[in-house]
């Protein structure tokens, strides 16, 4: 096992990684911006280094500052968490060329999956189902119009270098396509430094189902079940659950087999997620993207499989075997994660502020992964995620009942908070039935 770990992230995910590292006897080193100096993850680390001002480009995305922190503290490995530099192939290469251990997939796998068009083509060649779409970037508006005419409206206009629900737009006809193409391309150039755009078939009624994979040190790729991620706002997830209420045994087998093929196609190592769109009307699913990192929603898989995925990541990075038998994986029960954000529960607009009250719920099957405490300030510089409320039960009905109680018992005052939205969702017949899709949030509004 590696002996010292620098966590190149912040908030709840940094705190969560630090917790596992310390349990394993690994020295945990935090990096933080000036704005985050008082957050819990900084205090809980064995050592902490300020890497710059609040602006992420000058701190959490500052490669030289992070590498300097690793050198000065004698860190042996770097865990990037999610977001920031976690899917930056150049950073992964730099870490490894500096003689440090990278806790994640190889740079080549990150690069291969980072370009959505290249990823689609690789997956199609590996026998993973992909939605009808372009096999190369739509070079200009005329090419986009021609592609959409061939695919058939409605279409999704996507930034090839995008991810996390960013850089996407839906066009129902050519007029809308002209608007969305320019909008997505300019956004992609600004955010990702790459204006490449792809055109895909858009499915109006679809579910978002993903599979957790883990590439082991011995070269095998295993699938750790699926997660339902269809409760979304602006194409970004709010609620995840495992197993998916829409996936039965035969379909699950197909999902997991496709995810393993996807991982094997790029020689995948460490934790990753194969995201798919599932059409419940036809029982077909299509590859959406591969997230080459630990996902925000990994705790639901941990609770269903009885694993610590961060520990498994560290073991893979250390060249060690997993804690579990890959040939005898047995999921148990049901788990649900609610992303507690500092945002308006109606319009989902960010609402940062000073936390005056922070009381986390407790009880059987209740877990809270939080990044804040009373007295901390949720600043406008970063993502609005404050905590993840994860509940588990023997079945979905029990998990939902526990979630209702936990939401009612979670007290936050100061910043805006979306807990009232979850209280509403957990009583809504569409969610309770399990028969919902990515439009469910608009149905509640």
TrEMBL record:
The keyword Translocase does not apply. The keyword Nucleotide-binding applies. It holds the Pfam family Biotin_carb_N. It comes from the Bacteria. InterPro entries: ATP-grasp (IPR011761), BC-like_N (IPR005481), Biotin_carboxylase_complex (IPR050856), Biotin_carboxylation_dom (IPR011764), Biotin_COase_C (IPR005482), CPAse_ATP-bd (IPR005479), PreATP-grasp_dom_sf (IPR016185), Rudment_hybrid_motif (IPR011054). Residues 120-318 form the ATP-grasp domain. One of its GO terms (molecular function) is biotin carboxylase activity. Its EC number is 6.3.4.14. Keywords: ATP-binding, Biotin, Ligase, Nucleotide-binding. This is biotin carboxylase. It comes from Micromonospora avicenniae. The lineage of its organism: Bacteria, Bacillati, Actinomycetota, Actinomycetes, Micromonosporales.
